[in-house]
Automatic annotation (TrEMBL):
Keyword Transmembrane annotated: yes
Taxonomic placement: Bacteria, Pseudomonadati, Pseudomonadota, Gammaproteobacteria, Enterobacterales
Main location: membrane
Keywords: c-di-GMP, Cell membrane, Hydrolase, Membrane, Transmembrane, Transmembrane helix
Source organism (scientific name): Serratia inhibens
Catalytic activity from the UniProt record: 3',3'-c-di-GMP + H2O = 5'-phosphoguanylyl(3'->5')guanosine + H(+)
EC number: 3.1.4.52
Coiled-coil intervals, chain numbering: none
Descriptive protein name: cyclic-guanylate-specific phosphodiesterase
Membrane topology note: Multi-pass membrane protein
NCBIfam families: PRK10551.1 (NF007839)
Transmembrane segments: 21-40, 243-265
CDD domains per UniProt: EAL
Localization annotation: Cell membrane
Amino acid sequence: MGLKRAFARHVSHRRRSLAKSSIVALVFFILFTGITLFLINHQRTQYQRTVEQRTEKFTLENLDSLTEIMQQLMPLTERSCASSQPNITYQAAFNSGVRSFLLVKNGFAYCSSATGDMMLALKNIYPEIDPRQTRDLKLQQGTPLVPGKPAVAVWLRHPGEENTGVLATLDINLMPYLLFASRDARTPDIAIILDDRALTTFSPNLLPVSQLPNDQADRLAIPGTPMTILFYNETLTPNDIRLTLLGSLVLSLMIGILCYYMLLLRQSPERALMRGIKRNEFFIEYQPVFHTRKDAVAGLEALIRWQHPIEGRIPPDLFIPYAESEGLIVPLTRHLFRLIAEDVPRLATALPKGAKLGLNISPSHLSAPSFHQDVYELLAQLPGDYFTLVFEITERGMVEEANALAEFDWLHQQGIEIAVDDFGTGHSALIYLERFTMDYLKIDRGFVNTIGQDTVTAPVLDAVISLAKKLKMQTVAEGVETAEQLHFLQERDVNFMQGYYFSKPLSIDNFVTFCNSQQVVDYQAQKA
Ligand code: C2E
Ligand code: CA
Ligand code: CA
């Protein structure tokens, strides 16, 4: 979990993800709110246009059919009320919206569809109506029979006679409007204007035009009549805006959180590692290993490096244990094999045939089902038996692998040598070392460090060296940094050494240059 913690420490990752997801959420919020309000507005406007068109059509059709009926009734003005009344009563009853028909002769209403015979001057009951006009339309606060209820009076003059004609009073029923207005925000308030007065959905009485609200309203003039209808349309109500804002806020929060977790997931160490393999962020450095007595390069240890595009160099001490614990070590080691295979032709120009090529192998890889196949593939990519492969396996974990013994035998059959890495740092019982057949024992840097120091662990180094001799294993000292350490190890016949005293791990180019300037162990000559 080392890398995970290491990555978690990079708070900048989280902060960057947070900033990115906040921007995504904000953009979403703005777009969603904008588009939703635009759509609501658009839909409302279309609906209102439809209402207006239908109102116009409905009004015109009604006025036309009313005019037709009044024209049919016109000849009745020549006759007595008694003979005409059944006809006008019938027409008033069967034409919806008509409150009553009056027959007018010489300025006097003498017959009503509602009450029959009467004799009232027209100017007394409908003072606004001008009986000289061919057709006149007026709003009236009430009629003689229904005084409190506004109505529309429609006058149609007899073609030849000035003060004679038919008068209809209409109930303009705004009831559906009033009913719906409270339920459906889309139903606009309306005002029907004739001359200087208006019948509205918001007042039971007629209102002077000057008292109508100043709000923006759509005006619809009914062609061929003095009638104008105002629609107090509201495309976006405060409620629409509130609900839309709330909806987009919730959605953008959800999207922001989702985005944040997706970004974090994308940046998870596992993914970073697998992506690193795909994007070729790994490469190898080679540290020369020296033959102590010959004072010549005997081989090398390959050490993997990770150059992360954002994090920079990530030390193997962080990502190797992480890869081991997360089951990613097998793909990582396979990748290492591929990288080595790529470098091998150049390594062969630096080192002679038989040189030791040390690779670090994680103990858990030994028991992976693909282990043999992975090794076969590596061997197939290497040129013949040019290099002697040395698998360095840490003491820790090695003994936990039940099949280690069998695997070591198998590796030996493939011509691969085995080194116990980091010897002395694990908790293995020494008895295991007897049972395992291994070729090299790598003395951990920690012990080499104690040389020349008067510490409690200093004598352990001597014990380790003599143990290796008893087990007939060759010794490799790691982390040799000083001449003093070198001399100490020389005196005790440690076979190989490696450390900054000789060279740090080098890039392939530097390694080739280094080897060309050094003595190199000639294994072929040795054999001969
Ligand atoms: P290791 O196998 O013990 O590798 C030796 C480590 O000691 C390397 O560290 C090397 O750079 C460092 N070193 C060599 N000489 C000196 C010296 O004189 N002084 C000091 N202070 N250090 C020296 P590095 O490369 O950071 O690797 C650390 C560990 O990561 C390795 O320890 C090994 O366990 C693991 N590792 C590195 N490469 C691989 C790999 O390809 N596969 C696996 N499974 N593990 C690897
Ligand atoms: Ca090693
Ligand atoms: Ca080591």
